[in-house]
Design a protein that fits this description.
Chain B: This is Tripartite tricarboxylate transporter permease. The complex is a heterotrimer. Chain A is mostly helical. Chain A is built from 6 helices and no strands. The longest helix of chain A has 23 residues. The two termini of chain A are 46 Å apart. In chain B, a hairpin with a 6-residue loop joins strand 1 and strand 2. The termini of chain B are far apart. Classes of the chains: A mainly alpha, B mainly alpha, C alpha/beta.
Chain lengths: 153, 502, 318
């Protein structure tokens, strides 16, 4: 997308939408290449995915082409810190919940997730992590019967 | 027995202290799981099912029903407070509900939602009592062809939902349709668009997409803007709705109730379709459609009334025909069967106390929910004064547990994180995610019914115009399309869009 | 629930401390019961009902863990990756377990999984509207012969029980039917009641728990009439060779010690004989039919071969 931002003209958000639409359409077409298309009476599994992908690419072009001519409008600045920290915290939770139990997973999620916001105090973060973990264990694991081990063994 | 006698019988069954207690317990539990994002009523009921072995049949069923409609009440709470729909039917509530919360009117939004839901629940419950069997024949007249037309209409109506350009909304619907096709093709068993991942063979779960696109990306976007300090809501102006709020919402509640009661009868996406349709209808008939999405009270009242009405009326096919219309109702069917009751016409004649007791308890349950929820609003709104620094890790944790607990696997959580990134990209592209979710929910219904129709007619599409219900909906679709293409309509849309930009 | 849960967790903690010895099986640690379907489904409810009886029988804990997805493959994969110490068992369903072995690359080796005991055998059946002109399978076949492709049959997808039964009927009677896939038995029932399809496939258990005044069953596809529907003739009695039953039971890894598997099988057998369990099974319309793991396993190769033949028919354009 950065390539598109360089030009003096171009509506950034719309070009990004067009890119997403065309990207999804192309990806879908590529992935459904091996699927049987079928006939109208006996539609194969590939019939509608391909129709939808082609429509998606058409819509992408219809959004993107006029956007090229419009005066430049930048996409809002991207800040990587919250994006990466939250994503890593969540992915880490998933592995930890299965292999290390709920307690460690929850502590990890809250502590790591808090790093997304630079202003926090450690004392607050730690007590929040402990409180939420206790609450989660009581409500979800005991109360609602969520099937997850509590401890890593 | 006359209608009044039967109703009296029902209330005398439902009002016994034990049944009343189980009704309250179910409603409370339902509210709790509705409020907690990701934890759905289906899983909770499955876990509780064995416990109901030890209860008398009616008490067990009353409690499980309470969980179901209680969850519908609770689901709107997180939608309004933190912009996170707990269920598909609460997606539209986020559009105006969350905006109201940001303007300090969270209390009004929640109160209108609760009162609208109560009204809708009352009407739909009486619809079950008075016209259950008649309404169920309406549901039966919906064959594959009628579904196709209804879905086409519903998807087109979804473009009204978004306040941005129509084309982008259509693009989002198409992406939703594509996501809905991931998994094993129901008709042929072929696996589609799965990247060969076994975890995707059954498709993507709604919760994964909703939590990713609404939950995670909302948190990322909020933190990005100015860090946790910057996420401040306007101070609470007043806890209760104003006279003007009531004045604006009563008609919306009425229309939402009507739509919800009818669409709730249909199998599959009934409640979801109902809440989306109710919102779209309000926006169409409103004198100020451009304000939708900025925190208008009708935008909360109509879909909330509709989804609660649909939750009640989805009992009709189960109670009168013995056929569950969604997963939740299938679970209820199991609950009936565990107690040796086979739902269907025979229950109405042989065990009227079960049918009428349940109907009466539903109304009582709805009343209890209002009584529980109205005082709770004060508490919920206090939640908004919790600094975001403390709030977002909690939301993050609840979302993760909810996603993880669906299938107890790592994959779903990672997928949700992926949808968080995608949702973030959509935000940067100024694409609204609502239509995507509708396309995702309705897409599989559209595809399977289209294929079914053409299999049955052996490839002849004229069935769509030969069947009256289908024809009516196709005509409505064409009119809607014409309205959107007409320049005047497009201008108002664009004005609305620009106003929001400003 | 909470109390059981607490007990289970306490037990887990204690077990972790002492270390598991095979000699102590099964009292020192909970036995995880993997269910291949989502909570609330037929198999899930059956096993959740059975679990307390097994707990009394073996004096052990049986926590249920749902691993739904890919018609059981996810659960079977999890089972084949568990330690072979007898502390993990899973549900086993046919024909799904067999049909997934045909032309699909699996993430586990089916030869690693040994049945412990069959609990239920539920024959397939075809049903029509109560007012339908078809009174027996013969009526239907006669009509279908005269009007090829005109009879639409609701199934739950390609390669499912109902679809395989339909293909067998087509082959046995020399007729041509149109399969219409639905998302589940309930969707199919609704379409049948609304008159959108002529006939649908179900299991006898599902049929007996439906409202019988609105449906009529034409035949059941078992060797012998099921205890649930003693009045319904089998397809064979009507002259068509159609056999299709879904069976549900338990399985463990094959390298779990022989005596542990035998103990589990005996426990299932005893639980099934318990009148209290039988009463519950009757309420859920479970056609109980115990079969030892060995006998059940012995049946499988022949059935697999039959399914493979039918699948070839599907690929050959029917």
């Amino acid at each position: 997308m950065a390539r598109l931002q360089d030009t003096a003209k171009g509506d950034g958000p719309d070009l990004l939408s067009a890119g997403l639409f065309i990207g999804f359409g192309a990806l879908g077409l590529w992935m459904s290449r091996g699927l049987d298309f079928g006939t109208l009476a006996q539609m194969g599994p590939g019939f509608l995915p391909r129709v939808v992908c082609l429509l998606l690419i058409a819509v992408g072009l219809a959004v993107g082409l006029p956007a090229l001519k419009r005066p430049a409008q930048a996409i809002e600045a991207i800040r990587l810190r919250p994006l990466l920290v939250i994503t890593i915290a969540v992915v880490g939770f998933a592995f930890a919940a299965t292999h290390a139990g709920f307690v460690l997973a929850s502590l990890w999620l809250v502590i790591a997730g808090s790093l997304a916001d630079p202003g926090g105090k450690w004392r607050h973060v730690l007590s929040l992590a402990a409180g939420l973990t206790l609450f989660g264990a009581l409500v979800f694991v005991y109360g609602l019967g969520v099937q997850v081990p509590l401890w890593p063994f | 027995m006359t209608f009044v006698d039967l109703l009296f019988l029902g209330f005398s069954e439902a009002i016994t202290p034990a049944n009343l207690a189980f009704c309250l317990l179910g409603a409370l539990l339902g509210t709790l799981i509705g409020v907690l994002p990701g934890i759905g009523p289906t899983a909770t009921i499955a876990v509780l099912l064995p416990i109901t072995f030890f209860l008398p049949p009616l008490a067990g069923i009353i409690m499980l029903s309470g969980i179901y409609y209680g969850a519908q009440y609770g689901g709107s709470t997180t939608a309004v407070l933190v912009n996170l729909p707990g269920e598909a039917s609460a997606v539209v509530t986020t559009l105006d509900g969350y905006q109201m919360a940001r303007q300090g009117r969270a209390g009004a939004a929640l109160a209108v939602a609760a009162l609208g839901s109560f009204f809708a629940g009352t009407v739909a419950t009486f619809a079950i009592a008075v016209a259950g069997p008649t309404l169920s024949s309406f549901a039966l007249s919906f064959g594959p062809a009628e579904y196709v037309s209804l879905m086409v209409f519903g998807l087109l109506a979804a473009t009204i939902l978004a306040s941005g350009p129509v084309l982008k909304a259509i693009g989002m619907i198409l992406i939703g349709l594509l996501l809905g096709m991931v998994g094993t093709d129901q008709a042929t068993g072929a696996e589609r668009l799965t990247f060969g991942a076994i975890e995707l063979f059954d498709g993507i779960d709604f919760i994964v997409i909703a939590i990713g696109i609404f939950g995670f990306s909302e948190i990322i976007a909020n933190l990005e803007r100015t860090g946790s300090e910057g996420v401040k809501l306007a101070p609470l102006s007043r806890l209760w709705p104003t006279r003007e709020d009531f004045h604006n919402s009563w008609a919306a509640v009425l229309r939402g109730t009507g739509i919800g009661t009818l669409l709730g009868l249909l199998p599959g996406g009934g409640a979801t379709l109902a809440s989306f349709s109710a919102y779209s209808l309000e926006k169409r008939v409103s004198k100020h459609p451009e304000k939708f999405g900025t925190g208008v009270v009708e935008g909360v009242a109509a879909p909330e009334a509709a989804n609660n009405a649909a939750a009640q009326s989805s009992f009709i096919p189960l109670l009168t025909l013995g056929i569950p219309s969604n997963n939740m109702m299938a679970m209820m069917l199991s609950a009936f069967m565990i107690h040796g009751i086979t739902p269907g016409p025979t229950v109405l004649t042989n065990q009227p106390e079960i049918f009428w007791g349940l109907v009466a308890s539903m109304w009582i349950g709805n009343l209890l929910l209002v009584v529980i929820n109205l005082p709770m609003i004060g508490l919920w709104v206090k939640l908004l004064t919790v600094p975001y620094r403390l709030l977002y890790p909690a939301i993050l944790l609840f979302c993760c547990i909810g996603v993880y607990s669906m299938n107890n696997r790592i994959f779903d959580v990672i997928l949700a994180a992926g949808f968080g990134l995608l949702g973030y990209a959509f935000r940067k592209a100024k694409c609204e995610p609502g239509p995507l979710l509708l396309g995702f929910v309705l897409g599989p219904l559209l595809e399977s019914n289209l294929r079914r129709t053409l299999l049955i007619t052996q490839g002849d599409p004229s069935i769509f115009v030969e069947r009256p219900i289908s024809l009516v909906m196709l005509i409505a679709t064409v009119i809607l399309l014409a309205l959107m293409i007409l320049p005047s309509f497009r201008r108002t849309r664009e004005e609305a869009f620009q106003e929001e930009e400003a | 629930m909470t109390i059981t849960k607490t007990a289970v967790l306490t037990a887990t903690l204690l077990a972790a401390g002492t270390g598991a010895a095979l000699a102590d099986w099964p009292t020192d640690r909970p036995i995880e019961l993997i269910v291949a379907f989502a909570p609330g489904g037929g198999t899930d409810i059956m096993l959740r009902t059975l679990a307390p009886f097994l707990e009394t029988e073996l004096d052990a804990q049986f926590p249920v863990l749902n691993r739904p997805g890919a018609s059981g493959e996810i659960a079977y994969t999890a089972l084949s990756q568990a330690r072979p110490d007898g502390y993990t068992v899973s549900s086993l369903n046919t024909p799904g377990f067999l049909t997934m072995q045909i032309g699909r690359k699996l993430r586990y080796d089916p030869a690693d999984i040994c049945p412990i005991a069959r609990i239920v055998e539920d024959p397939g059946t075809f049903i029509v509207q109560a007012g339908s002109e078809y009174k027996s399978l013969t009526d239907l076949v006669a009509f279908a012969k005269a009007n090829p492709g005109a009879v639409s049959v609701g199934t739950t997808g390609v390669g499912t029980d109902e679809h395989l039964a339909m293909l067998q009927l087509e082959q046995a009677a020399g007729i041509d039917l149109t399969a219409v896939p639905f998302g589940g038995a309930n969707e199919a029932k609704t379409a049948l009641l609304g008159g959108h399809v002529a006939m649908i496939g179900l299991n006898v258990g599902e049929y007996t728990t439906s409202d019988r005044s609105s449906f009529r069953a034409l035949a059941q596809f078992a060797e012998q009439r099921s205890t649930l529907a003693p009045d319904l003739p089998t397809a064979k009695e009507q002259g068509f060779d159609v056999l299709m039953s879904s069976e549900r039971g338990l399985a463990a890894r094959c390298d779990v010690p022989e005596d542990i598997r035998a103990k589990l099988a005996t426990a299932v057998d005893t639980a099934l004989a318990n009148p209290e369990f039988q009463e519950k099974a009757k309420q859920q319309a479970l056609p109980l039919s115990f079969k030892s793991g060995k006998d059940w396993q012995a049946d499988m190769p022949a059935r697999l071969e039959r399914f493979t033949e039918i699948f070839k028919m599907i690929e050959g354009g029917q």
